[in-house]
Amino acid sequence: MRIGTRVVRAGLPPARDGKPLLPGPVFAATYHLRGDPPAGDSGYGRTHNPTWLALEAALGELDGGYSVVYSSGMAAISAAMRTFVKPKSRLVIPADGYYRVRELSARLADEMGVDVRRVRFATEDAAEAVRGADVVWLESPTNPRLDVCDIAAAAEAAHDVGAVVVVDNTTPTAVGQDALGLGADIVVASDTKALIGHSDLVLGHATARDEGHAARLRGERDLHGAIAGPQEAWLAHRSLATLELRLQRQSANALAIATYLAQAPQPTRVRYPGLPHDPAHQIASRQMRLFGPVLGFALPSRRAAEAFLAASALIIEATSFGGVHTTAERRARWGGDDVEAGFIRLSVGCEDSEDLIDDIVAALAAIPT
Ligand SMILES: *Cc1c(COP(=O)(O)O)cnc(C)c1O
Predict the structure, then answer these.
(1) Is 86 a catalytic residue?
(2) 190 lines ligand 1 (CB under 6 A)
(3) CB 315 within 8 A of CB 330
(4) Is 331 a catalytic residue?
């Protein structure tokens, strides 16, 4: 079945009369457990919860592997790092990806002697980039620069040297990009963003193609305890059903806005993988099903970007992305990312695209010259 059908049905239990389509959250710290416990069942809420299991079944179906759910995207990322990166491992990470991954890697370098190499996968030769690596960490499109790397080529080069390949698939989600299908061994994601899509929950997951890798991740979660609450897991599962619908609308809106911005006089550059002349377009068209809600554009200065955000009536100034409400921020306000002072990361929501474009036209016109 196609992804638009799978995402609506993923993880639902078989039909049983009198039972709900998606069972509600199960709140339990302990379960009845008499006599010798069966293998793998501790009867305890840190290691087992039926509401996570349903969400993990859904995410596993969509990613094409075995999923483990965590309390946040960073919990999933830290778990994958702790599981696959060992003292003195050689770790290759994107130079332009999520900044907390660079921070975490720097700490692993300090504490465990991990040899961390930062690479621009969008422009560097894949075989050269992964030479000698034990773990290759990819992110595409990157947050916030929106660079795209050829995942299949990077994964093949990494496998040639025996490395484990992890892809942060937060920005596209499983609906937008089949990272395991492109060659990743492990997918990690912040489900806080487009997957849940309502800006109201923090959650993450990792999916392994191999059952043994998933068992190691699950064992690590048992020890570190970064579990999801049942209410959050259930709400995430409920939100999943509209993911493809939301992303279709958001991607169409984002393309319309990017197309407008690309010919407007004020932006000095626009990045959106769906724009035909974007440097990422060719690879993105090959490896992404949808180009997603996030676009970036640079205004000439910090002052211009701040004036634009202040003048917009519809764009909510907030960090994060992927939600149904259109949000944006001047990304350089945080520091740490290689973007211009006037660079705006715009996450396009599900509003009417004509209203969004009218608002953007007016907000650009309000920038003082
Ligand atoms: C937000 C984000 C994360 C971190 O996820 P949290 O849910 O905030 O912990 C990781 N990777 C990418 C690409 C992100 O955008």
Answers:
(1) no
(2) yes
(3) no
(4) no
> How far, in Å, is the centroid of ligand 1 from the Cα of 197?
13
pLDDT of 40 > 80? The answer is: no
Residue recorded with tokens 């002052």: 303
Catalytic residue among 168, 185, 191, 337: 168
Check whether 41 has a pLDDT greater than 80.
no
**Do 353 and 253 meet the contact criterion of CB atoms below 8 Å apart?**
yes
Q: Specify the pLDDT at position 369.
A: 83
Enumerate residues 6+ apart whose C-beta is below 8 A from 18: none
Helix (H, G, I), strand (E, B) or coil at 27: coil
pLDDT tens digit sequence for 308-335: 999 999 999 999 999 999 999 999 999 8
pLDDT, one tens digit per residue, over 257-306 is 999 999 999 999 999 999 999 999 999 999 999 999 999 999 999 999 99
* Phi, psi (deg, nearest 5) at residue 135: -130, 130
**Helix H or strand E encompassing 158:** helix 151-160
- Angstrom distance (rounded) from CA 174 to CA 63: 6
Pick the closest to residue 57 from 9, 110, 125 (CA basis). Answer: 9
What's residue 290's pLDDT? 98
What is the full DSSP assignment across 296-324?
EEE-SSHHHHHHHHHH-SS-EE-S---SS
Label residue 152 exposed, middle or buried (CB < 10 Å: 0-12, 13-18, 19+). Answer: middle
Helices 230-240 and 50-63, packing angle to 10 deg: 40
Q: What is the mean pLDDT of residues 348-366?
A: 98
Q: Is the CB of 71 under 6 A from ligand 1?
A: no
Do residues 227 and 52 make contact, with C-beta atoms less than 8 angstroms apart?
A: yes
Of the candidate ranges 74-83, 139-148, 167-176, the one whose mean pLDDT is the lowest: 139-148
Sheet holding 269-271, edge to edge: 269-271, 294-298, 343-347, 327-330, 316-317
